[in-house]
Amino acid sequence: MADTLGKSYKASLRIKETIIYICMIVLTLIAIVPVWIMLINATRTTEQINAGLSFLPSTHAFDNWHALTRRNFQIWQGFGNSALISVCATILCVYFSALTAYGLHVYRFKGRNALQGLIMILIMLPASLSFIGFYQFMAKLHLTDNYIPLIIPSIAAAGSVLFMKQYLDSILNMELVEASRIDGATEFMTFNRIILPIIQPALATQAIFSFVASWNNFMTPFVLLSSTKKYTLPMLVQMLRGDIYRTEYGGIYLGIAVSLIPIIVFYAFMSKYIIGGLTMGSVKE
């Protein structure tokens, strides 16, 4: 009887494992196939792309690259502009979100719960709701065609604050903060030298999200920027569709593929901090 139960249990366990593996494979294919098709289309001509779908690469990648350069596709200029905006916005977003979350976690003050509720409301509100007012405000400050409106507002990232707050609630021991205060450390010294190293996984996670969102942001730079020299890479890729007589879809796919390289590199660089900090402890027994 026991052997029969043991065999049935192992069989059900194998079935569950098989179902899990199948689901993982399907989800992996859903994530990989669109990227693979994009890379394949980057090597095909416009005629081949219009002819139908293909999963095998072609031999026209260099032709598409020449099509990009012939149409004044300033790729390095776009890289530099996007990198400047994305890096600055990511640093401000991650640091000040962590600082705000630390203040909400450590200090008990009047209006603390109301402030947390306000953060939740801001997360639920769509970003497009305040876009017109934001543009009018920047126009009155004469900050259109400027990188400042694309960088400074990253400080107020409600989603990042909430994520950091929940992370601190789960891992931060108040005894560590109190011990730091007893040793004479200031609040900013405690945060910069003790708290930031502890929350490296959360910082790396939010850095990835913030960098990707800022790098792929098209609408805000498109509305605010007017000088071609200040265009970001997504704006330059969109300009490839400006020819009303012929659209080089192969060149567009190649431009999109090139624009994804910094995101992949940034993710590969930051992911090691996520993995390395998962088992990091704040207090040694």
Count of individual helical segments: 14
Low-confidence sequence ranges: 279-285
- Helix and strand succession? HHHHHHHHHHHHHH
Strand content: under 5%
Mean pLDDT over the full residue set? 83
How is the secondary structure organized here?
Layout: H1 2-41, H2 46-51, H3 61-70, H4 75-106, H5 112-124, H6 131-140, H7 148-151, H8 158-171, H9 174-182, H10 187-198, H11 200-216, H12 219-224, H13 233-239, H14 249-277
Describe, in plain words, how this protein is organized in 3D.
With 285 residues, the chain is mainly α. It is 73% helix and 0% strand. It contains 14 helices and no strands. It has helices spanning 2-41, 46-51, 61-70, 75-106, 112-124, 131-140, 148-151, 158-171, 174-182, 187-198, 200-216, 219-224, 233-239, 249-277. Helix 3 (61-70) crosses helix 14, helix 4 (75-106) packs across helix 8 (158-171) and helix 4 (75-106) packs across helix 11. The protein is flat and about 70 Å long. The model is unreliable at 279-285 (pLDDT under 50).
